[in-house]
Recover the amino acids of this structure.
Protein backbone atom coordinates (compact mmCIF):
# COMPACT_ATOMS: atom_id res chain seq x y z
CA UNK A 1 0.00 0.00 0.00
CA UNK A 2 1.48 3.33 -1.08
CA UNK A 3 1.59 6.04 1.55
CA UNK A 4 2.74 9.66 1.25
CA UNK A 5 2.84 11.73 4.43
CA UNK A 6 3.66 15.42 4.24
CA UNK A 7 4.79 17.62 7.11
CA UNK A 8 6.45 20.96 7.73
CA UNK A 9 3.69 23.34 6.76
CA UNK A 10 2.82 26.35 8.86
CA UNK A 11 2.32 30.10 8.95
CA UNK A 12 5.11 32.52 8.12
CA UNK A 13 5.49 36.13 7.15
CA UNK A 14 6.44 37.18 3.64
CA UNK A 15 10.15 36.68 3.08
CA UNK A 16 10.30 33.74 5.45
CA UNK A 17 11.20 30.11 4.79
CA UNK A 18 9.71 26.68 5.34
CA UNK A 19 10.90 23.18 4.59
CA UNK A 20 8.34 20.58 3.67
CA UNK A 21 8.97 16.84 3.97
CA UNK A 22 7.19 13.89 2.44
CA UNK A 23 7.87 10.39 3.75
CA UNK A 24 6.93 7.68 1.28
CA UNK A 25 6.39 3.95 1.49
CA UNK A 26 4.94 1.10 -0.52
CA UNK A 27 6.83 1.50 -3.78
CA UNK A 28 10.39 1.54 -5.13
CA UNK A 29 11.15 5.08 -4.11
CA UNK A 30 14.63 5.35 -5.64
CA UNK A 31 13.28 4.64 -9.14
CA UNK A 32 10.32 6.97 -8.96
CA UNK A 33 9.76 10.41 -10.34
CA UNK A 34 8.39 12.63 -7.59
CA UNK A 35 6.77 16.00 -7.42
CA UNK A 36 5.25 18.73 -5.30
CA UNK A 37 1.88 20.31 -6.08
CA UNK A 38 -0.11 23.06 -4.48
CA UNK A 39 -3.70 24.17 -4.48
CA UNK A 40 -4.58 27.70 -3.46
CA UNK A 41 -8.13 28.65 -2.43
CA UNK A 42 -10.33 28.95 -5.49
CA UNK A 43 -7.60 27.85 -7.89
CA UNK A 44 -6.64 24.72 -9.77
CA UNK A 45 -3.92 22.47 -8.39
CA UNK A 46 -0.60 23.33 -9.99
CA UNK A 47 2.74 21.61 -10.26
CA UNK A 48 5.48 23.34 -8.28
CA UNK A 49 8.54 21.13 -8.64
CA UNK A 50 9.54 17.67 -9.82
CA UNK A 51 12.58 15.44 -9.60
CA UNK A 52 13.72 12.32 -11.40
CA UNK A 53 15.64 9.29 -10.07
CA UNK A 54 18.93 10.98 -11.03
CA UNK A 55 18.11 13.93 -8.82
CA UNK A 56 17.55 16.36 -11.69
CA UNK A 57 14.94 18.93 -10.78
CA UNK A 58 12.30 21.00 -12.57
CA UNK A 59 10.38 24.04 -11.37
CA UNK A 60 7.37 26.12 -12.21
CA UNK A 61 8.31 29.64 -13.28
CA UNK A 62 6.52 31.08 -10.26
CA UNK A 63 8.89 29.39 -7.79
CA UNK A 64 12.13 28.98 -9.71
CA UNK A 65 15.01 30.51 -7.75
CA UNK A 66 13.08 30.44 -4.47
CA UNK A 67 12.12 26.77 -4.02
CA UNK A 68 14.40 23.72 -4.07
CA UNK A 69 13.24 20.14 -4.40
CA UNK A 70 15.47 17.36 -3.14
CA UNK A 71 15.26 13.69 -2.27
CA UNK A 72 16.91 11.38 0.21
CA UNK A 73 16.53 7.88 -1.18
CA UNK A 74 18.00 6.31 1.96
CA UNK A 75 15.15 7.80 3.98
CA UNK A 76 12.44 7.57 1.29
CA UNK A 77 11.88 11.25 1.88
CA UNK A 78 11.19 14.11 -0.50
CA UNK A 79 11.81 17.73 0.52
CA UNK A 80 10.77 21.16 -0.65
CA UNK A 81 12.82 24.05 0.70
CA UNK A 82 10.85 27.25 0.24
CA UNK A 83 12.63 30.57 0.65
CA UNK A 84 11.51 34.16 0.19
CA UNK A 85 7.91 33.10 0.55
CA UNK A 86 5.20 35.36 -0.81
CA UNK A 87 1.48 35.64 0.11
CA UNK A 88 0.64 34.09 -3.26
CA UNK A 89 2.44 30.93 -2.16
CA UNK A 90 -0.35 30.29 0.34
CA UNK A 91 -1.82 26.87 -0.50
CA UNK A 92 -2.10 23.25 0.49
CA UNK A 93 1.09 21.53 -0.65
CA UNK A 94 1.02 17.85 -1.59
CA UNK A 95 3.69 15.45 -2.72
CA UNK A 96 3.12 13.02 -5.57
CA UNK A 97 4.78 9.86 -6.78
CA UNK A 98 5.09 7.80 -9.93
CA UNK A 99 4.36 10.29 -12.63
CA UNK A 100 6.26 12.34 -15.21
CA UNK A 101 9.73 13.56 -14.28
CA UNK A 102 8.80 17.13 -15.11
CA UNK A 103 6.17 19.72 -14.26
CA UNK A 104 2.83 18.23 -15.27
CA UNK A 105 -0.80 17.93 -14.16
CA UNK A 106 -1.34 15.99 -10.95
CA UNK A 107 -3.68 13.49 -12.63
CA UNK A 108 -0.66 12.04 -14.42
CA UNK A 109 0.75 10.88 -11.08
CA UNK A 110 -0.36 7.58 -9.62
CA UNK A 111 -0.26 8.76 -6.02
CA UNK A 112 -0.91 12.08 -4.29
CA UNK A 113 -0.63 12.85 -0.58
CA UNK A 114 -3.21 14.61 1.57
CA UNK A 115 -1.15 17.76 1.85
CA UNK A 116 0.09 20.27 4.40
CA UNK A 117 -1.09 23.87 4.72
CA UNK A 118 1.29 26.74 4.05
CA UNK A 119 0.09 30.25 4.89
CA UNK A 120 2.16 33.33 4.10
CA UNK A 121 1.07 36.67 5.50
CA UNK A 122 2.11 40.06 4.20
Amino acid sequence: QVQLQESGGGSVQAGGSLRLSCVASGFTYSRACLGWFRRAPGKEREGVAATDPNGDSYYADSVRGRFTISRDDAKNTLYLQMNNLKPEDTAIYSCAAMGPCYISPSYLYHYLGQGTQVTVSS
